[in-house]
Amino acid sequence: MKLRSIAMTGVMGLAGLGLIGAGAHAVWTTSTSSAQTITAGSMSVSVSAPGATLTGPSTDCSTASPKCANITLPSYAVTSSSYATTPDLVTITNTGTISVDEVDIQLTDPANADNGQNQALDNETWACFYAPSVTGDLSTMSVYANVPMSTFESWNQIVDYANLAPGATDYYYLVFYAGDANTGCGGQFQDVNTAGPFTSWGGLSVPSAFWNNLTYPSYPVTPGDNSAASSLSNDAQGGTITPVLTFTFSA
Question: What was the pLDDT predicted at 69?
Answer without folding.
Answer: 93
